[in-house]
Structure formats: C-alpha cells, structure tokens
Amino acid sequence: MGATLFISDLHLSDNTPEIEAGLYAFLERESDMTRLFILGDFFEYWVGDDDDTPLSRRVIQQLRSVSDRGVSLFLVRGNRDLILGPDFAGQIGATLLSDTTVIDLDGVPTLVLHGDTLCTDDVEYQKMRAVLHDPAWQAEMLQRPLEERREFARGLRNASQEKADKDPANIIDVNADAVSEAFSVHGVEHMIHGHTHRPQTHSTSEGERIVLGDWSATEGWCVRSENGRRTLEQFSYS
Ligand code: MN
C-alpha cells in the first residue's frame, strides 16, 4: 500500500503560477500514493463551484487525472475556500469531508481538520466564522451574481490581511485548551491540520499534533504517512 499524503494552504490564485506548477510536480512525483487529503485553503478564495475560471479548470483537470488513476482524494474546506462544494468535489472525484473528521490512518484514529476552529483566542474571527458558515447565509450568497461574490471575497481577504499585519502573532495560533478539547472530544491521540502556517510536530502527553505549512513560490509542505510512520516534510519544487 502506498502513502497517505496531506497538504494544505496552497492559497492558489491567478498570482501563484509557481505554487500551481509545484502542485502538479508534487502530484506527478507522488503518483504511487494511495490517498491524498487536502486540508483547506487550497484556493486563496472560492466564490462558488459555478465560478468557471481558467485556474479552476486547470486544477480540476489535474486532480481528476489523479483520482482517475485510483488515488482517493479527500477535501476539507478552509477559511479561504469555505464554500467549496459538492460540485467541485465531484468534478475532481474527491470526497468532501466535514470540518472535523476522524480517519483511520494505518490503523491509528487521526483527527483531520483545517485548524481555524482551534484558534479560539481570535474572538473576532470566530464570530465572523459563525456567520460565514451559516447554511442560510451561504445559500443566499450563492444566489448573488459572481462579480458581487468576487468583490465580497476581495473585501474579506483585505480585512484578514490588515488584521494579520496588526495583531500580535499569538492571536492567530491555536489555543491550547481548544487543542486539548479536540483531542478529548474526538477521543484521539493524533491530529493533523494546517491554517496557522506554523509547520511543526507537537508531541505532548495528550497526543501528537502535526501542523502543515503553507506553500511558497519555491517550497511546499506535506505530511506523509507510510508504513506506520508519519513525517512532516518540506520540499523544493525544482
Ligand atoms: Mn486558513
């Protein structure tokens, strides 16, 4: 059996041709993987599965060929692509997962999630998240014209950038109590997530938490689970 791989936080957009090429090279190099989990913020923003951009068409084509080869794809939404939906998942042959899922990883129950729900110190963000994740709000949003949705997404992105520039670094990291709660609520000792852009393996008495990194113009990150071992890896595209 091949490896199970995890990636997140590529933040793909029209401005990230290097990351996009890095993704395709990664998919090619890891062609013997068994499963690939994409843990959110795959796109910098996503305004609806009906937004038929050249970028989304290219990505769909590449991921479709991966799932056609027999690789099982799983998709978790991030805060940037929170309205990625079943149409997109269907087009790439992926299973869309809910915000938190316990998977069987080589016999070990492992919680996989984007990670933003662990950042409970960011009260303002969590309030906004509750609104954005309300199904009624999302349904209403998806009725609006695409250009209006794009405008809204740009506004959110700018606000989030300004906030990141202003706030102390610890605000956007995970909250220790939220991590403890996630371990206990889900009854697991292993967790993999992204979002914070602080790639690291944390081992405590509660369990092991591996945090994926965000992809840059030259390097990407993945977690590899193979033969009962999990490793956090950084790699260059070239
Ligand atoms: Mn995120």
Helix content: 25-40%
What is the C-alpha radius of gyration, as a whole number of Å?
17 Å
Largest sheet: 6 strands, mixed
Fourth CATH level, the homologous superfamily: Metallo-dependent phosphatases
Topology pattern, helix = H, strand = E: EHEHEHEEEHHHHEEEEE
| Low-pLDDT sequence parts | none
CATH class descriptor name: Alpha Beta
CATH fold call: Purple Acid Phosphatase, chain A, domain 2
Oligomeric organization of the protein chains: single chain
Overall number of domains: 1
How far is the N terminus from the C terminus?
27 Å
Give the percentage of residues in beta strands.
15-25%
Please tell me the CATH architecture by its name: 4-Layer Sandwich
Chemical compounds bound to the protein: manganese (II) ion
User: What order do the strands of the largest sheet run in, or round the barrel if closed?
Assistant: 4-3-2-1-10-11
Structural class: alpha/beta
The average pLDDT value, as a whole number, equals 94
Count of distinct strands: 11
| Count of helical stretches | 7
